[in-house]
Amino acid sequence: MLEVFGRRPYLVLLVMALLLAPVPFLQLNDYIVHVLTLFLIFAVFATGWNITLGLLGLKTLGHHAFFAIGAYASALVSHYFGVSPWITMWLGALIAAVAGIIIGFPILRIRSMPHVAIVTLAFAEIVRLVFANLKDITRGELGFWGIPPFNPIGIGDTAIRFGLGNAAGSFALAAVLFVGVHLILLLLLRGRCGLTFLAIRDAEAAAESLGVRLAAWKLFAFGISAAVVGLSGAVYAHYLMILTPTSVAGPEMLISLLAMIIVGGVGRFFGPIYGALLLTATSELLRDFGDYRMLLYGALIIVFVFIAPAGIAGLKPRLGRKPAEATKPVEAV
Amino acid sequence: MLQLERVNVHYGATRVLWDVSMEVGAGEIVAIMGPNGSGKSTVLKAAMGLKKPSSGVVRLDGEELQARSATVRPQRGMSIVLERRRLFPRMSVEENVMLGAYTRKTAEARETYRWVLDLLPEIKPHLNATAGKLSGGQQQMVAIARGLMANPRVLLMDEPFLGLSPAMVKTVCSIMQMINERGVAILFNEQNAKLSFAMSHRGYLLESGRVVLSGSGEDMLDHPEVRRVYLGMREEAA
């Protein structure tokens, strides 16, 4: 667990929250706040994906489908039925969770990791094609615009507004989502639940022999993971107020998010956050290069896989750590 | 206590156990000996529920378990130390050991934890160490400690001496005897005939998935076939 969470995970999260808290009041350039908002949303997305990919050890490559499901479900219900996004965001998370459990069932029967990757990838492509072809409802690749932003919140005489164009409010909402989701996941994963996931990842047969119900825990992990990703998708939809199937469930989203997790540190709780920060910022800085920025993503993944397979989160302890003492062998009787 | 009756196991179309029947009585140490590929590990996996028998009966204290998953065994008083330890290498030793009590209440688990640490004091200094970084012998002790945390009445041990130094083999042998003296029955498999039958009350010889010989540990060691094939002794020399 130490490897996953580090020594003081709550303190790390508190420091992050304290760093985020003043941002809406700093009168920063709206573009910078926009990039930071995207970072927070993608960090939640990446953390959610990391539950199955890093903690459970299943090489799932289709979580952008849950992002799209959460985004479209929330956007469509709020748009067509006039339901507040404050409610539909939870609906998006719930529908994504159900989708996660449904795709989890066939995956339980697959032992080969490459096949798990292919099945989940195919699932994401199916989801993308469904949203692209339901043109009467989603307008397909033309884009589903007119998604309502989150309703304003009044504090005293001040109304906090959300959605693109309201940078400070949107950032504050994303920051609350970021801290809230990570706090809940810390509370959940630092105990029996996290130990169970890691036990399944590291020695499935041993875990089963200890009494771990593999199928139930894997489905639970899929459900939680998809719910978190779906929730981030819903917030993304009501922030940008426009969705296209390819932008949320296309290969660029897959590569970007996978890069964030790998570069940040697969299986490290805070790894995806560091990866999301680095790559969201890099992606925006390289926006002038258009599609060529994906080359940089690819190169970064290759570099990290070879030089630092544990990612950014795995580099930290090494820098300040004393050489480990050799463990004294046990005396023979 | 633990009985296997005419157990057959297939891996796909390949049959690996042929009507295997075995019994472990309360407080016994029982060895399964046989060459590589004879099905020793499969017997333990079938008993533990990690491999479902295609036919036959696995019974613990009269309750038939062959159709039940492995997850119910610890609650019924059975646990296993898997081949090559199968620790959770990135967790601490303490986390590994405590996970052995996965199905038990925390208070009971704490009590057993103290008992296990008294029995295996060698792991005490390493409780906060990462399990995967320990030596093979230390890892075996952690695996045994984890197996004991379920408070089993019968402990299965799959190749407990595999990859250990001779000194560590002696240590593990004496730990097994200590565990047994505290009333825990042990069913283990091993390729070394002398080692396995010398320390066991009873033994089974398995060849090509079939039980070809069974008897007390002493009888097994004295059996001409065992002496000739597995101990390399000629009859006249014996």
TrEMBL record, chain A:
<dbReference type="InterPro" id="IPR043428">
    <property type="entry name" value="LivM-like"/>
</dbReference>
<feature type="transmembrane region" description="Helical">
    <location>
        <begin position="87"/>
        <end position="108"/>
    </location>
</feature>
<feature type="transmembrane region" description="Helical">
    <location>
        <begin position="167"/>
        <end position="189"/>
    </location>
</feature>
<feature type="transmembrane region" description="Helical">
    <location>
        <begin position="294"/>
        <end position="315"/>
    </location>
</feature>
<feature type="transmembrane region" description="Helical">
    <location>
        <begin position="32"/>
        <end position="58"/>
    </location>
</feature>
<protein>
    <submittedName>
        <fullName>Branched-chain amino acid ABC transporter permease</fullName>
    </submittedName>
</protein>
<dbReference type="InterPro" id="IPR001851">
    <property type="entry name" value="ABC_transp_permease"/>
</dbReference>
<feature type="transmembrane region" description="Helical">
    <location>
        <begin position="115"/>
        <end position="134"/>
    </location>
</feature>
<dbReference type="Pfam" id="PF02653">
    <property type="entry name" value="BPD_transp_2"/>
</dbReference>
<feature type="transmembrane region" description="Helical">
    <location>
        <begin position="9"/>
        <end position="26"/>
    </location>
</feature>
<keyword id="KW-1003">Cell membrane</keyword>
<feature type="transmembrane region" description="Helical">
    <location>
        <begin position="65"/>
        <end position="81"/>
    </location>
</feature>
<keyword id="KW-0472">Membrane</keyword>
<feature type="transmembrane region" description="Helical">
    <location>
        <begin position="254"/>
        <end position="282"/>
    </location>
</feature>
<keyword id="KW-1133">Transmembrane helix</keyword>
<feature type="transmembrane region" description="Helical">
    <location>
        <begin position="219"/>
        <end position="242"/>
    </location>
</feature>
<keyword id="KW-0812">Transmembrane</keyword>
From TrEMBL, chain B:
<feature type="domain" description="ABC transporter">
    <location>
        <begin position="2"/>
        <end position="233"/>
    </location>
</feature>
<dbReference type="GO" id="GO:0005524">
    <property type="term" value="F:ATP binding"/>
</dbReference>
<protein>
    <submittedName>
        <fullName>ABC transporter ATP-binding protein</fullName>
    </submittedName>
</protein>
<keyword id="KW-0547">Nucleotide-binding</keyword>
<comment type="similarity">
    <text>Belongs to the ABC transporter superfamily.</text>
</comment>
<keyword id="KW-0067">ATP-binding</keyword>
<keyword id="KW-0813">Transport</keyword>
<dbReference type="InterPro" id="IPR017871">
    <property type="entry name" value="ABC_transporter-like_CS"/>
</dbReference>
<dbReference type="InterPro" id="IPR003439">
    <property type="entry name" value="ABC_transporter-like_ATP-bd"/>
</dbReference>
<dbReference type="InterPro" id="IPR003593">
    <property type="entry name" value="AAA+_ATPase"/>
</dbReference>
<keyword id="KW-0029">Amino-acid transport</keyword>
<dbReference type="InterPro" id="IPR027417">
    <property type="entry name" value="P-loop_NTPase"/>
</dbReference>
<dbReference type="InterPro" id="IPR052156">
    <property type="entry name" value="BCAA_Transport_ATP-bd_LivF"/>
</dbReference>
<dbReference type="Pfam" id="PF00005">
    <property type="entry name" value="ABC_tran"/>
</dbReference>
